[in-house]
Amino acid sequence: MSEKQEMNQPKKNQARDARKVRRIVLWIVLAFIVLVLIGLLTGYFYVRAAMAPMDETDDTPVEVEIPSGATVGGIGEILEEEHLIVNGTFFRYYARFQNATQFQAGIYELDQTMNLDEILETLQEGPDREAYSVSFTIPEGLWIEDIAETIAQETDHDEDDVMNLLESEDYAEDLVDEYDFLTEDILHDDIRYPLEGYLFPAMYEFVEEDTSLEVIVDSMLQRTSEVYDQVVEETGSENDLDPHDVLTLASIVEREAQTAEDRRLIAGVLFNRLEDDMQLEVDPTVAYAQGEHLYMTSLEDIDIDHPFNTYQNSGLPPGPIASPGEDAIRAIFEPEETEYLFFYARVTGEVIYSETFEEHEEIHETYRDEWIEAEEEEESEE
């Protein structure tokens, strides 16, 4: 081999190696593209199958009961068990994608010729209401006495009987053994009613006119359990709070806020105050301690010596002060992170946030007369 050839040999080797690398990279890119295409095609055909009727030739009616307070995930599981859809989890995500979450409880006649969109539409339209003997709605933020009153008004049960059951420690102990999210915390001496905050606000319907109180309460607790688990799953949150603490904070947020944005902001303020070892100082806990709904909270009111008075006691109150809805519970897992330590709610519903006590006091002085005038106007109308 000549000297010139010897000099060119490394260059030839480098070129050969470069071609090999290019071929390897090309094959890797092609393999990746093929895998992506396979994934996209697989996903496409899966979604197509999941949305299509299970059997276009079988129109045999299938009676499906959607229980009161069922979650979207729970409804998906029911439909999958009845072989009306391919997958309950896909149903849940598709329903949320379509913003179709306001399903109505009841008994439906569906069949396997219905596609997913038709099923969603039917569940939102609702069943034949005449099939139900008992129907009532519990709004968010009610005290347990108010819930008992609503149940008594809409059923054949006496209000005293409802309260006796809800106050029963033996009944509460049995429920602690039955439900994982119920703990011994609900049996604490400072708790007024063991199930305060645990009866989920929603519409409840029952076929039987003589539906027992136990069945009614069980439906409400089951709904709370399902919603709580669903929120935990969807938020992927791992905070240090147990369900009792979450519902306690959520109940305060529910009583303080009117919008989803304010719920998350107020949740953030509560966490900031707890982290700074500040008392929560929230008016709804004072009203709960007083045992009456207060239009305004006075200096005399906040002097009450009571475990639920967050002006006098540090940390969380012993338990929930009302029944929070899903959005208030979700706010505890997804609070808005800010530097705010104070908030003030105006008569108009607007909530004003501040970082310092001086700012808060200035806001308080600016808008306090609104509440005084509104209270005087209300008293004059009465």
From TrEMBL:
The record marks 256 as: Important for catalytic activity. It catalyses: a peptidoglycan chain = a peptidoglycan chain with N-acetyl-1,6-anhydromuramyl-[peptide] at the reducing end + a peptidoglycan chain with N-acetylglucosamine at the non-reducing end. PANTHER family: ENDOLYTIC MUREIN TRANSGLYCOSYLASE. Belongs to the transglycosylase MltG family. HAMAP family: MltG (MF_02065). Keywords: Cell membrane, Cell wall biogenesis/degradation, Lyase, Membrane, Transmembrane, Transmembrane helix. GO terms for molecular function: lytic endotransglycosylase activity. GO terms for cellular component: plasma membrane. This is Endolytic murein transglycosylase. The keyword Cell membrane applies. Pfam families: YceG. The keyword Lyase applies. Gene3D superfamilies: Endolytic murein transglycosylase. It comes from Natribacillus halophilus. The gene is mltG.
